Automatic annotation (TrEMBL):
Gene Ontology biological process terms, A to Z: lipid A biosynthetic process
Protein name per Swiss-Prot or TrEMBL: Uncharacterized N-terminal domain of lipid-A-disaccharide synthase
Organism: Faunimonas pinastri
Pfam families, A to Z: LAB_N
Keyword Amino-acid biosynthesis: no
């Protein structure tokens, strides 16, 4: 059992740094998108993806991308990098859709 305690101490105490703190904050922001999506769906009684889901995706994904660059993790860099493109594209489509009715009315 002491080896498990030693592992936890090494991973969560000895390695703690600014980058690890940033990684935890980024992961928390990224995770919030799932909580928001779940709550919005429960309220609506159907599956809903609120716009805030995409904002948390971009913010959390960007911070996780920065974290992965600092860790030199090619798998994480590629995954978060592609995700950022997808999240930004979804926000652009939402923005364009909301802007379009206003242009047609004017």
């Amino acid at each position: 059992m002491s080896s498990v305690g030693g592992w936890f101490h090494h991973v969560f105490i000895q390695q703690f740094s600014f980058w690890v703190a940033l990684g935890f904050v980024a992961q928390l922001l990224f995770m919030m998108r799932f909580l928001l999506q779940w709550l919005a769906s429960e309220r609506a009684g159907r599956s809903v993806v609120p716009v805030s889901f995409w904002f948390f995706s971009v913010i959390g994904g960007f911070l996780l991308f920065i974290y992965s660059l600092s860790r030199h993790d090619p798998v994480f860099i590629a995954g978060q990098g592609l995700g950022l493109v997808i999240y930004a594209r979804n926000l652009w489509l939402i923005f364009r859709e909301k802007r379009s009715p206003m242009q047609n009315a004017g």
